[in-house]
Write a structure and sequence with these properties.
Blueprint (H helix, E strand, L loop, with lengths): L2 H24 L5 H16 L10 H23 L4 H8 L1 H13 L6 H18 L2 H5 L2 H20 L7 H23 L3 H7 L2 H28 L2 H4 L5 H12 L7 H21 L3 H4 L14
Helix pairs in contact: 1-11, 1-13, 2-9, 2-11, 3-8, 3-9, 4-13, 5-8, 6-14, 9-11
Length: about 300
């Protein structure tokens, strides 16, 4: 890889990981689902001018964005609002396991015993995290993040129904189709949206700008450029910097406590997910569309 591209492939996961921590900090100003509507709405307004429309696949895209976007991120970020960011980002790693299992069931992709073993180990790690006293006291946020990961994985499977699209085109129209769904969900399940808009300070809007422009629009533009140039097994392992950055940000920026349960469980989960990444880079069914249909939001949450 070129030296500049090495810097980019390191910078993008770090940008995504820090964005996850920043989103947690932004919940003080904006409700979680409403924040997602702002994030993807602004990103869509930036990106859609540079890609061709997807009107011929609008129905399938609507289903994909509902499952892999509106449902997945509404659950995950609402769950994040009730738990530590450093803990939530570890639980989010279950997306890798869910996506692999769904690909095996739906597309009959074979999983070798080492991959199955790594998935079992990841679940053991999640079990350790679930045993944390803070989660035991209020398990609903934890459950929402897990269910959000399952929905995200199902959304990745639905991407296959879209056929060859192109990475940047996909994320642009994913954002455009999902933003109104987030807004509708926010109006149904949340309150105080207008109050948030009128009372948010410049620092709050700066965080929204980061999530929409830096994390989503710029982050994915840079990522999909790398996807088009290099083999996935060269760049996908760098995605492991996302949880590492989020954990560091949660501890250093949000002053979160890394408990023994979370530390042990997190180490187990990251080790298992690392093995899955390095052994195959990505789930078999999804890998076939690697250059055209890279992951919608590959663990930037």
């Amino acid at each position: 890889m070129k030296p500049l591209d090495i810097l980019v492939v390191i910078a993008v996961p770090v940008i995504w990981g820090f964005g996850f921590t920043l989103a947690k900090d932004t919940f003080e100003a904006f409700p979680p689902i409403f924040l997602m509507s702002l994030r993807f709405g602004i990103a869509a307004l930036i990106l859609i001018w540079f890609v061709r429309p997807l009107w011929d696949r609008a129905g399938r895209l609507l289903a994909t964005t509902f499952v892999g976007g509106a449902v997945a991120y509404s659950l995950q970020f609402t769950g994040l609002s009730g738990m530590y960011a450093s803990t939530a980002v570890l639980v989010v790693q279950l997306e890798v396991v869910f996506a692999s299992l769904l690909a095996a069931v739906i597309f009959k992709d074979r999983l070798n015993r080492w991959q199955v073993g790594a998935m079992v180990i990841a679940l053991v790690g999640i079990g350790f995290i679930a045993g944390d006293p803070k989660i035991q006291g209020d398990p609903w946020p934890f459950a929402m993040v897990v269910l959000g990961g399952l929905s995200w994985a199902a959304g990745q499977i639905l991407v296959k129904s879209l056929g060859p699209v192109g990475g940047l085109r996909l994320i642009a129209w994913f954002a455009a189709f999902s933003a109104p769904q987030f807004l509708l969900a926010s109006l149904i399940f949340e309150e105080g949206q207008w109050h948030a808009v009128t009372t948010a300070g410049w620092s709050d809007w700066a965080k929204v700008f980061y999530l929409a422009v830096i994390m989503t629009a710029a982050g994915y533009a840079l990522w999909y450029r790398l996807v088009g140039i290099y083999r996935l097994n060269q760049i996908v392992p760098f995605l492991l910097l996302v949880p590492v950055t989020s954990i560091a940000g949660g501890i250093l920026v949000l002053c979160e406590e890394l408990t023994t349960h979370v530390a042990i469980g997190g180490a187990i989960v990251l080790a298992a997910v690392t093995f899955i990444h390095l052994s195959q880079s990505r789930p078999p069914a999804l890998r076939g569309a690697a250059r055209d249909d890279a992951p919608l939001l590959p663990r930037d949450e």
